């Protein structure tokens, strides 16, 4: 099938081309993000392939549908960037990659936590400059601490397991607790988790219910000096409230792999430009904040699985057989 692949980076081509040897689709790569301005590039393509910051709102979907697109093959797990109701109304099929490597994301959340705790990001620069002073690098033992996991899907449970391995007590909050979760995962209401956790890690999807789940009220319930890690989606956190809490010292350390307005920033080299997002720039001024640009998924294993599952979704759509990992407005299949 002919597929227009948006937001293509060299690593996407590498892994998609490799996996496509077994599938034989015609993949046409476009560098730009999918927006209403770039949607016409997909004219005549029955399918398009999109990533997390491609915009698939009502307007874009209508442009795509009018020019012949029937399939949206997401090469991501999250699908908050798609107006699913509109896709359904237009008769378009949306597929995703439900699980490609929960380990990749969970391990990155742990990397953020460990770096922030021991201030490795600061120590690296200090040592390079011949500054071997330890002031400001004081960490704490993870052993014995309470970790709150918000969202115990595939990624949250792997993260919980790793933290259990460190000797942490694991609290979890999820409207749909996993009956298969290990006995060391103690489900509690979110409010209890926020009050009791030394470390809060977010692994829920972005939905209308989780938008700004971590706002000023939620932060007020947290322990003083709490460590907050977000590898879920930027808009789960109210950035302004988080900045206030960093200024007051309520939040002791903040690790982000996702950011509310990341669509304007991430996945591109802006080092020669002036960044006009003042909230983002304010975050970068705190010594106890560590931000990565949506790279938690970025392992060789994950990219290989993403490519393989995306292409096999396209095959299933084209042939009407095989597993079609479809996502619909009311339920995920
Ligand atoms: P999943 O679908 O397996 O699990 C999500 C869990 O969150 C489910 O158990 C669900 O019941 C729970 N949940 C829903 N609403 C909630 C709420 N209000 N409070 C607490 N829990 C809630 O998804 P998976 O694979 O574990 O991924 C989780 C999220 O991680 C994705 O939706 C995506 O946004 C993000 N992600 C980030 C990546 C990155 O590179 N930073 C890569 C992959 C996913």
Key features?
Rossmann fold, 11 helices, 333 residues, alpha/beta, binds 1,4-dihydronicotinamide adenine dinucleotide, seven-stranded parallel sheet, five-stranded parallel sheet, 12 strands, 2 domains
What does this molecule look like?
- The chain has 2 domains: 2-100 and 299-327, NAD(P)-binding Rossmann-like Domain (Rossmann fold, 3-Layer(aba) Sandwich), CATH 3.40.50; 102-291, NAD(P)-binding Rossmann-like Domain (Rossmann fold).
- The protein contains 11 helices and 12 strands.
- It has helices at residues 10-20, 58-66, 84-89, 102-118, 120-128, 154-165, 190-196, 216-221, 239-248, 278-283, 300-319, and strands spanning 2-5, 26-29, 47-50, 71-74, 93-95, 146-150, 169-173, 185-187, 199-202, 226-230, 251-256, 289-291.
- A 7-stranded parallel sheet has the order 8-7-6-9-10-11-12, with helices on both faces.
- α1 links the parallel β1 (2-5) and β2 (26-29).
- α1 crosses α11 (300-319) and α4 packs across α6 (154-165).
- It is globular and about 60 Å long.
- The two termini are 23 Å apart.
- The mean pLDDT is 96.
What is the number of independent domains?
2
**Sheet of most strands:** 7 strands, parallel
Count the beta strands.
Answer: 12
**Elements, N to C (H/E):** EHEEHEHEHHEHEEHEHEHEHEH
* SS class: alpha/beta
What is the radius of gyration?
21 Å
C-alpha end-to-end distance: 23 Å
The distinct ligands, each listed once, are:
1,4-dihydronicotinamide adenine dinucleotide
Number of helices: 11
CATH superfamily of the largest domain: NAD(P)-binding Rossmann-like Domain
CATH topology-level fold name of the largest domain: Rossmann fold
Shape: globular
Identify low-pLDDT runs.
Answer: none
Mean pLDDT: 96
Spatial strand order of the main sheet: 8-7-6-9-10-11-12
* Architecture (CATH level 2) name of the largest domain: 3-Layer(aba) Sandwich
Percentage of residues in DSSP E strands: 15-25%
């Amino acid at each position: 099938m002919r597929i227009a692949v948006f937001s293509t980076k060299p690593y996407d081509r590498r892994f998609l081309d490799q996996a496509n040897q077994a599938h034989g689709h015609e993949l046409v790569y476009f560098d730009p993000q999918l927006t209403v301005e770039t949607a016409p590039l997909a004219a005549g393509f029955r399918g398009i392939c999109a990533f997390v910051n491609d915009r698939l709102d009502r307007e874009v979907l209508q442009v795509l549908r009018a020019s012949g697109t029937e399939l949206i093959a997401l090469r991501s797990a999250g699908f908050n960037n798609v107006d699913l109701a509109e896709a359904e109304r237009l008769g378009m099929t949306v597929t995703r990659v439900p699980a490609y490597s929960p380990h990749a994301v969970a391990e990155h959340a742990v990397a953020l936590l460990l770096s922030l705790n021991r201030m490795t990001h600061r120590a690296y620069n200090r040592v390079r400059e011949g500054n071997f002073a330890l002031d400001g690098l004081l960490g704490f033992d993870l052993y014995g601490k309470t970790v709150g996991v918000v969202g115990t899907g595939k990624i949250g449970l792997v993260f919980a397991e790793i933290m259990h391995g460190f000797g942490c007590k694991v609290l979890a909050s999820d409207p749909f607790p996993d009956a298969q979760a290990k006995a060391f995962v103690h489900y509690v209401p979110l409010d209890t988790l926020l009050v009791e956790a030394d470390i809060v890690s977010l692994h829920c999807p972005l939905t209308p219910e989780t938008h700004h789940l971590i706002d000023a009220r939620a932060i007020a319930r947290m322990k003083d000096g709490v460590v907050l890690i977000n590898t879920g989606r930027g808009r789960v956190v109210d950035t302004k409230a988080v900045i206030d809490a960093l200024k007051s010292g309520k939040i002791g350390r903040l690790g982000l792999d996702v950011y509310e307005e990341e669509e304007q920033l991430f996945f591109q080299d802006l080092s020669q430009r002036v960044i006009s997002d003042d909230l983002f720039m304010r975050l970068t001024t705190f010594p106890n904040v560590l931000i990565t640009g949506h790279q938690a998924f970025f392992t060789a294993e994950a990219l290989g699985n993403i490519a393989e599952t995306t292409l096999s979704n396209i095959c299933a759509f084209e042939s009407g057989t095989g597993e079609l990992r479809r996502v619909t407005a009311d339920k995920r299949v």
